[in-house]
Amino acid sequence: MSDNFQFEPSLFKYLRDLKKHNERPWFKANKARYEDELRSPMLHFIEDFAPHLGKVSENFLADARPIGGSLFRIHRDTRFAKDKTPYKTHAGAHFRHVRAKDVHTPGFYLHMEPGNVFMGAGIWRPDTATLGKIRDAVIADPKRWKRISTAKSLKNANCTLVGDSLKRPPRGYDPEHPLIEDLKRKDFILAVDAKEEDALAPDFIKQFAKFCKTAAPVTEFIAHALDLEW
């Protein structure tokens, strides 16, 4: 297991420059910077993180392929967006469940953006059927859900459940249920904010691994609710 990887300030410098010049000619002229200062270090991080992830669960992937792996592509999908800028101004890595290509699954996520670094875990915007399974699992074992979702380890890590929620109780669920605020969730995501200095620290890969371990009980609960291997 390698713990020697360290991000360089050039990654954030490149992203700041990209935000100022978010256009295809600039990106093409600076393609070498993209490959050397963003893609290569992100792929290196993903590769080195794989053994750490394996200690959390063997059913999540750290895939260091340049295309189709854990690294999100830099190109934005602008087909239905009002904002037509062609490139994302952040780098993202998603460590998906092995069954992610077949069904909605939870995962772990790293977001690298100037002034906005964060670590995430859980499931974002699942479809109606998937969301229903998670809600039903909360109802089936409310004590366990409350215990793991309000665990002291999460509070100590400043790790909180975030995401969008319904304004009203979901149809078919008791509006007086003691966990109704959780049942109203449209996302089941744990997140921790970090600073650029944290991301540039020599032990950042360990910090991310610690977050994933802390978030694992909630992620495992979601996986089991969806009949997925943990």
Question: What does this entry look like structurally?
Answer:
The protein has 230 residues and is an alpha+beta fold. The protein has a single domain, classed as 2-Layer Sandwich (BirA Bifunctional Protein, domain 2). Helices cover 43% and strands 13% of the residues. It is built from 9 helices and 5 strands. Strands 1-2-3-5-4 form a 5-stranded antiparallel β-sheet. Helix 1 packs across helix 3. The radius of gyration is 19 Å and the shape is globular. The two termini are 22 Å apart.
List the helices and strands and how they pair.
Blueprint: H1 9-20, H2 24-29, H3 31-56, E1 91-96, E2 107-112, E3 117-123, H4 128-140, H5 142-149, H6 152-156, E4 160-162, H7 180-183, E5 188-194, H8 196-199, H9 204-225
Antiparallel strand pairs: 1-2, 2-3, 3-5, 4-5
Characteristics:
globular, BirA Bifunctional Protein, domain 2, five-stranded antiparallel beta sheet, 9 helices, 230 residues
What is the typical, i.e. mean, pLDDT? 95
| Unreliable sequence segments | none
How would you name the CATH homologous superfamily?
Protein of unknown function DUF1054
CATH topology: BirA Bifunctional Protein, domain 2
What is the oligomer described by this structure?
Answer: single chain
Structural class: alpha+beta
Number of strands: 5
CATH architecture tag? 2-Layer Sandwich
* Amount of helix: 40-55%
Report the CATH C-level class.
Answer: Alpha Beta
Counting H and I runs of at least 4 residues, what is the number of helices?
9
Rg on CA atoms, Å: 19 Å
> How do the helices and strands follow one another from N- to C-terminus?
HHHEEEHHHEHEHH
- Beginning-to-end CA distance, first to last residue: 22 Å
Give the tally of structural domains: 1
Profile the largest sheet: 5 strands, antiparallel
Strand order of the largest sheet: 1-2-3-5-4
Share of β-strand residues: 5-15%
Bulk shape: globular
